[in-house]
Design brief:
Largest sheet: none
Order of helices and strands: HHHHHHHHHHHHHHHHHH
Number of domains: 1
Shape: globular
Radius of gyration: 21 Å
Structural class: mainly alpha
CATH architecture: Orthogonal Bundle
Oligomer: single chain
Bound molecules: phenylalanine
């Protein structure tokens, strides 16, 4: 039996899990959603959901991991043999996400290289981004580099690789975010953007706001992909689980909030208040923002630190994905870390290359108007994740019972302060909300 690795301290665990949670979703998706769905009302809705729904699922996953000391497949099987299939589902999700997430990570590295080498102007052309991703070789090379960096850290192991890198990168990420946010909110004319971001607008509030906030929260907190189970399995028994979850929530929501402060005022100043410039997705990060940076004083510098920050965010998330996959194979087949890393790297290079080439030579492959990358994203995020989360709630709420999680939370000594909230959420409220998310994301995705 191999001895299970551990995070050496609570702060190591919290920073690694926050590293997973803080990712591309916080930076390019949250600001856009907040701006679109009612500003302050969206923020408030998001926070309420994070501390109830998000808290519940994250606590459950970390507890399942720590209790069993195993990653997803082993954890579900150990608690109830009939539910091993949930572990398999939890294994499939990161296997799908990791490759395409790394393709986007490669794009971030490319933009970082453009900014740091002082070629920012080149990236402001309208066709620059499209030209880059439709090229077959260049995006593949950046993708390979991103995966290689991730693999090296995962190869170094939980304490010497993941924990160490998180302890360095996460504080730097906070610092860089603060620098950029302070700079952009003090730009001339930033006030209008700030008001748009922060002032509650009930007129833009609807059931859709709740759905959008919920979908975002779920992805942003890295729930329902086996990650928190895996990281939980490396958490020490005497570290406070409930307190850690609260710290991760604060970290994740804080960075998302700061991303809005960085992006929305700056885009407003640049576009003269034209909200359509805030469109979501790759367009915002790789087309609009380079233009915004190019238009401001010190833009080359701000753009460079912005892309380093995004790179750190993406890398620590990719590490958690890869570690989850590696851990699953190691638990299942008792492979060495080295062999598992090589295997996962090769597998991901193959799958990711398909996503990357899907914008160039393979662009004829599409389904309901989605590229290969979008298809992978749709299957994992819109279908498999809500299904897994729903089953996890049913599993904890009715099969093993919430007490098993509550006891695990109390293992470190002390009480489980939010036990009542947890029990009601996991048995009733979360499953209902999840069915609604699932139905609506299938309807929008295929609509
Ligand atoms: N939570 C990450 C984000 O907000 C997303 C992520 C997805 C992380 C998958 C790990 C795995 O971007």
């Amino acid at each position: 039996m191999q001895k299970r690795s551990n995070f050496s301290s609570k702060i190591g665990f919290v920073l690694a899990a926050s590293g997973s949670a803080v990712g591309l979703g916080n930076i390019w998706r949250f600001p856009y959603l907040a701006a679109k769905y009612g500003g302050g009302t969206f923020l408030l809705t998001y926070v309420v959901l994070a501390v109830t729904f998000g808290f519940t699922l994250m606590t459950a996953e970390i507890a399942l991991g720590r209790k069993t000391g195993l990653s997803a497949i082993g954890a579900f099987t150990a608690l109830d043999k009939r539910f091993g299939f949930l572990g398999v589902l939890a294994a499939v999700i990161p296997i799908i996400i990791f490759p395409y997430y790394s393709v986007i990570g490669g794009w971030v590295l490319k933009y970082f290289s453009v900014f740091i080498s002082g070629n920012m102007k080149a990236a402001t052309g309208d066709d620059y981004f499209t030209g880059f991703i439709t090229n077959s070789v260049s995006p593949l090379l950046w993708f390979f580099l991103f995966i290689a960096l991730t693999a090296i850290i995962v190869l170094l192991g939980v304490e010497k690789g993941i924990e160490k890198v998180s302890k360095i990168m996460m504080p730097i990420l906070v610092l860089l975010s603060l620098i950029i946010a302070v700079y952009t909110v003090t730009l001339d004319g930033a006030k209008e953007g700030l008001i748009y971001y922060l002032r509650p607008r009930m007129s833009d509030f609807s059931a859709k706001t709740i759905l959008a906030a919920m979908g975002q929260m779920f992805y942003s907190m890295s729930l329902a992909m086996g990650i928190m189970i895996t990281y939980g399995s490396y958490m020490k028994k005497d570290d406070n689980l409930e307190g850690s979850v609260h710290q991760i929530e604060i970290f994740d929501t804080g960075i998302a909030f700061l991303a809005g402060l960085m992006i929305i005022p700056a885009v407003f100043v640049f576009s003269g208040g034209d909200k359509s410039a805030l469109g979501a997705g790759p367009g915002l990060m790789f087309i609009t923002l380079p233009k915004v940076f190019a238009s401001m004083k010190f833009g080359g510098f701000i753009g460079t630190i912005f892309f380093i920050m995004v790179f750190f965010a993406a890398l620590t998330s990719a590490i958690s994905l890869m570690e989850t996959i590696v851990s699953i194979f190691r638990d299942k087949f008792h492979w060495s870390r080295k062999f598992a890393c090589v295997f996962v790297t090769v597998l991901s290079l193959i799958l990711g290359s398909l996503s990357s080439l899907g914008f160039g030579p393979l662009s004829s492959v599409s389904w309901h108007g989605m590229s290969i990358l979008d298809i992978m994203d749709f299957i994992s995020n819109s279908i498999l994740m809500p299904i897994l989360a729903l089953f996890t709630c049913i599993f904890v709420g009715f099969i093993i019972k919430p007490d098993v999680v509550a006891d695990e939370v109390r293992v470190s000594g002390g009480t489980f302060k939010s036990e009542k909230l947890f029990t009601v959420m996991i048995k009733w409220i979360a499953p209902i909300l999840l069915v609604v998310i699932l139905a609506s994301s299938i309807a929008t995705g295929l609509g």
